[in-house]
From TrEMBL:
This is Acetyltransferase component of pyruvate dehydrogenase complex. It comes from the Bacteria. Keywords: Acyltransferase, Lipoyl, Pyruvate, Transferase. Residues 89-137 are annotated as: Disordered. GO terms for molecular function: dihydrolipoyllysine-residue acetyltransferase activity. It catalyses: N(6)-[(R)-dihydrolipoyl]-L-lysyl-[protein] + acetyl-CoA = N(6)-[(R)-S(8)-acetyldihydrolipoyl]-L-lysyl-[protein] + CoA. The lineage of its organism: Bacteria, Pseudomonadati, Balneolota, Balneolia, Balneolales. It comes from Fodinibius halophilus. Forms a 24-polypeptide structural core with octahedral symmetry. Belongs to the 2-oxoacid dehydrogenase family.
């Protein structure tokens, strides 16, 4: 009996998955436990395994296709088995990656338009008589663009013979470089379109919800980092695990959160939860956006352990090998852009946290000590807080505790 392979729920917030890679082809035999595909979710790239042996009779989604949760990805069964019923189910919405037109469908229709060499509505709205849209872009049919790219022809050198000067297939076929017009002073460049990844979709949704549902307010404090600078240098001279400034900030936050449980809280509509554990998420930038791996029980760990775990999480975040559970359960978040020279910024709260700390660069500035101007090292941090949970005074008290710890780092270990 044929078996459906449906898009599984690979994370708690997943609504659809994108086929990143098929490890099998139609006609391949598989055993229970075989990994047949890699799927990009909103949090990570996960492996999909099968639980039944058989032959891959049909693959219903191409690499790059988004498949809704529960829809059919593939069909497994015995060779030459009749699967017409399952294919009908897939075509009716049970397994189609996307019922809307694909990019290939659009291009095919555009190619058909090329053959007709006529697209009056498109051109009357978008073109002027010299083959350019009002925004300066060169107008050409999809097939003409594809042919030009394959042949290395710049569309700016081609004169269009379609309606309103649109470049069509025959213009590329008849193009001769020697007849190319002289280069203009400026060159129009084509836009580039990128597919929105599952991770970017989720980031957009979650941060939009956070920004517009949680009333944010911000408080900034300037911290003397010379004591941390000196302490870190001494620690790294004797430690096998190198400690970063961010590791020290994370440790200081964890210690300060123990004294300010209202900062280590979450809003639950009819109640506020003060978390027993201190689990700090560290924001990590990757190509697809921002991920927040979590160091559990941060307040109970020393600097070396925080540094080692943090480095491992960051490396695996960049490799897209983090598991969803490693990005869940945070009670507070630290986002550091100091390594990029950013002196001060505000961050959007990472739900369901009450607060997020934005950490800027350590600046070398003149400071006044005992009436004299001397060199100093300063760092600004900004706390974004959910006003439903945290009041201005509470946020200020937390920041002052954090400042005190960083200006007296020995106090964090006593």
């Amino acid at each position: 009996m044929a078996i459906k392979v449906e898009m599984p729920k690979l994370s708690d917030t997943m609504e659809e998955g994108v086929i990143a890679k098929w490890n099998v082809e139609e006609g391949d035999d598989v055993e229970s436990g075989d990994i047949i595909a890699e799927v990009e979710t909103d949090k990570a790239t996960m492996e999909v395994e099968v639980f039944d042996a058989g032959t891959i009779l049909k693959i219903l989604a191409d690499e790059g296709d988004a498949v809704p949760l529960g829809n059919i990805m593939a069909i497994i069964g015995e060779e030459d088995e009749d699967i017409s019923d399952l294919l009908e189910e897939a075509e009716s919405g049970g397994g189609s990656a996307d019922e809307s037109s694909t990019a290939d469908d659009v291009e095919t229709k555009a190619d058909e338009k090329d053959d007709e060499e006529y697209d009056p509505v498109f051109n009357e709205l978008d073109n002027n008589d010299n083959g350019q849209a009002d925004d300066g872009r060169i107008k050409a049919s999809p097939l003409a663009r594809k042919m030009a790219e394959e042949q290395g022809i710049s569309l700016s050198n081609v004169k269009g013979s379609g309606p309103h000067g649109r470049i069509i297939k025959r213009d590329i076929e008849s193009y001769e470089p020697s007849r190319a017009p002289a280069a203009a002073a400026t060159v129009s460049r084509e836009d580039t379109e990128h597919r929105v990844s599952q991770m970017r979709k989720t980031i957009a949704r979650r941060l939009s919800e956070s920004k517009f549902s949680s009333p944010h307010f911000y408080e900034t404090i300037d911290i003397d980092m010379q004591p941390v600078w000196d302490a870190r240098k001494q620690i790294n001279e004797v430690s096998d695990t190198k400690i970063s400034f961010n590791d020290i900030v994370v440790k200081a936050c964890a210690t300060a959160l123990r004294q300010h449980p209202d900062i280590n809280s979450s809003w639950q509509e009819d109640r506020i939860i003060e978390h027993g554990n201190v689990n700090i998420a560290v924001a990590v930038g990757i190509d697809e956006g921002l991920v927040t791996p979590v160091i559990d029980n941060t307040d109970q760990k020393g600097l070396q352990q925080i540094a080692a775990e943090g480095r491992d999480l960051i490396e695996r975040a960049k490799d897209r090998s983090l598991q969803p559970e490693e990005m869940e359960g945070s009670t507070f978040t630290v986002s550091n852009l100091g390594m990029f020279g950013i002196e001060e910024f505000t961050a959007i709260i990472n739900p369901p946290n009450a607060c997020i700390l934005a950490v800027g660069a350590i600046r070398e500035v003149p400071v006044v000590e005992d009436g004299e101007v001397v060199p100093g090292k300063r760092m600004k941090v900004t706390l974004s807080s959910d006003h439903r949970i945290v009041d201005g005074v509470s946020a200020a008290k937390f920041l002052n505790t954090l400042k005190g710890m960083l200006e007296n780092p020995l106090g964090m270990v006593l």
